[in-house]
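Sequence design from tokenized structure. All designs in this work follow the same two-part layout: the structure record, then the generated sequence. An example of the structure record is given first.
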């Protein structure tokens, strides 16, 4: 059975969007997932399933999660190879910028429009940068990033696709732990 890594968006934020790990595991299993693992309580899930397409896995998980907690849980799914490639890009981009204070990776449900990508990447400046590669957008924030031209929240909205973010450490740790 194929293995996938799923990232859940906007859970465990405030009192109304609680989705504890045990419930995530139960709902993932109800959706047909097996060998379910979670990492920290921000919605990182590894599973195997008989489903063979990313879209089908996302749809099955989103249905099961909504049934479990009573609210929509947008879910972004990658194959292990895709997550390894995102982690490799993250390491490459971080290694090229010794001055980074933060590196966030926006994990995207779909690839954004190429013209939109060009517009978003053009917002980069000498301190901060946005680099979009496929279904991942890397926000590279340097010294004094709060004053720079790259705003993480505006960047996410500008991508115009469902997204969730994780920091560099979570992305690389999951790739190493679950995909090696």
């Amino acid at each position: 059975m194929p293995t996938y890594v799923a990232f859940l968006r906007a859970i465990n934020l405030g009192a109304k969007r609680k989705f504890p790990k045990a419930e995530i595991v139960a709902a993932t299993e109800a959706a047909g997932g097996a060998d379910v693992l979670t990492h920290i309580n921000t919605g990182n899930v590894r599973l195997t399933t008989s489903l063979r397409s990313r879209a089908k896995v996302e749809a099955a998980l989103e249905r099961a999660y909504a049934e479990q907690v009573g609210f929509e849980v947008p879910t972004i799914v990658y194959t292990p190879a895709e997550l390894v490639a995102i982690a490799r890009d993250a390491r490459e981009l971080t290694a090229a910028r010794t001055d980074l204070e933060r590196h966030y990776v926006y994990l995207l449900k779909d690839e954004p429009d190429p013209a939109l990508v060009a517009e978003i990447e053009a917002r980069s400046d000498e301190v901060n940068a946005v680099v979009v590669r496929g279904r991942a957008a890397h926000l590279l924030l340097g010294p004094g990033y709060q004053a720079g031209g790259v705003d993480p929240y505006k960047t996410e909205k500008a991508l115009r696709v469902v997204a969730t973010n994780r920091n560099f450490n979570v992305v690389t740790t999951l790739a190493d732990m679950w995909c090696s």
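The domain at 80-179 is CATH 3.30.70.100 (Alpha-Beta Plaits). We note this feature because it recurs in several other targets discussed in the main text.
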